[in-house]
Amino acid sequence: MSASSESHLNFWRRTEIVALIITLLVGIFLRLPAHDFEPGAALSSIAALHPQAAFKEKGFDEGLYAEYTNKLDQFGLSSYPLIVKDYVERQERLGRSILSPLRFLYIFSGYAWHRAFGSENLHALKSVASLFSILTLCLSAIFAWRCMGRIWALGISALMAVAPTQLHMSQHALVDGFFTFWAMLVLWLFWENLHAPKNWRWLLAYIVALALLVVTKENSFFVWVALVALLIANYWLQFGTVSREIILATIIGPLLGTVMLILLAGGVPELIHTYRYSMVKNLELPYAISTGDGPWFRYLVDLMLVSPIVLILAIGTAFRLDRVMKMEWFMTIFIAASYLVMCNVKYGMNLRYANMWDLPLRFLALSEIVWLASFAKQFRRAITVTAVALLVVIEFHQYIVLAVRYPLYELITHDLLEALKILKPM
């Protein structure tokens, strides 16, 4: 390689790294919680630049998370079984389902933030949601870089930086964006273990991440099903090496998480009662019946409303899969296997739960853009950059329409249709 060619290559490398840093900084800024821009806050002077969510009230689930955080602050960690017992007794009296205190890791993180910084409980929980949305963005860049290289890391980061549901979750005290970080961390560590079999550091990190995923939310079962599907699919698609250790780790991690839940609940019977009441009562909850039902393609409808171009591009990639497209198969199987379970949960469909598909969908969308641009060999870089930039603008505009101009809280079909002015008040 000549000196001029090497200098030119180094210039592009530096440019790409600078662009990646700027992209991550923009994404971080967009994810900062709204209370950081209130009068008197450190960032209040630049509040005009931040797209403030229109929904300012305390949502029902947000109130419950704040309540559990307050109880943990009052009674301490050793009394957590009493908090769970109170929940069970409360569920027996109520004619509806309320979220469980066994979504422990998010509640504990809010408590830790409150103790460390003195924030009011609800603000602490929103700060945690914001922080973990930021961590998901950074993790997306690392995952893409490790799998596909620096340029893909830039493209994925750009699309994730403005992903509407990612931004939405960063502004509310809800567990789903927090859960997404742990789900994507598990997925990345699973991929690393396939490519570094028997490496005890990756295995240990994978086991810990799985355990923490279980104590975050019961949706961890969907992720586990997808991991098992990937292990089976590896026989044909050869993503990496399936060692005995990774199979054992995929079992041990959730078992450790379950043991932690048993200790937090105060015993096996209490744990079973907690989840049984949550599931049974949810089938009787009028809100769940009216908003959480629908055909198997309900999630596709909602995703089309929020991120139509991303979904179309991702589906395009799914229709041209071949054996050499390892990462595309990896992401597709993760979505498809978890989708198969999630779309069969009675009265339990909500786009919030699909937050963990944001990264895989954008990976598939970027793959389609790169493939389409490859037909114009001479201008493929310019076309790819232009297409990604245009998609970023469209995605950010979608967030503005959905959550800044409209007071969006729940990601249900009715509210999405109203925000987009497809449905109008009668």
Radius of gyration: 22 Å
Instruction: Specify the number of helices.
Output: 19
Q: Per the principal axes of the C-alpha atoms, what is the gross shape?
A: globular
Structure classification: mainly alpha
Major sheet: none
Helical residue percent band:
over 70%
Q: What is the ordering of alpha helices and beta strands?
A: HHHHHHHHHHHHHHHHHHH
Distance between the termini: 69 Å
**Average of pLDDT:** 94
Explain what you see.
There is one protein chain. With 426 residues, this protein is mainly α. It has 19 helices and no strands. The chain has one domain (3-419). The radius of gyration is 22 Å and the shape is globular. Helices cover 71% and strands 0% of the residues.
Describe the structure using short key phrases:
426 residues; mainly alpha; 19 helices
Task: Give the secondary structure arrangement, pairings included.
Elements: H1 3-31, H2 60-75, H3 80-93, H4 104-117, H5 121-148, H6 150-161, H7 164-170, H8 175-195, H9 200-214, H10 220-237, H11 244-265, H12 268-282, H13 286-291, H14 298-306, H15 308-318, H16 326-342, H17 358-373, H18 380-404, H19 413-419
Helix pairs in contact: 1-5, 1-6, 2-4, 3-12, 4-5, 5-6, 5-7, 5-8, 6-17, 6-18, 7-18, 8-9, 9-11, 10-16, 11-12, 14-15, 15-17, 16-17, 17-18
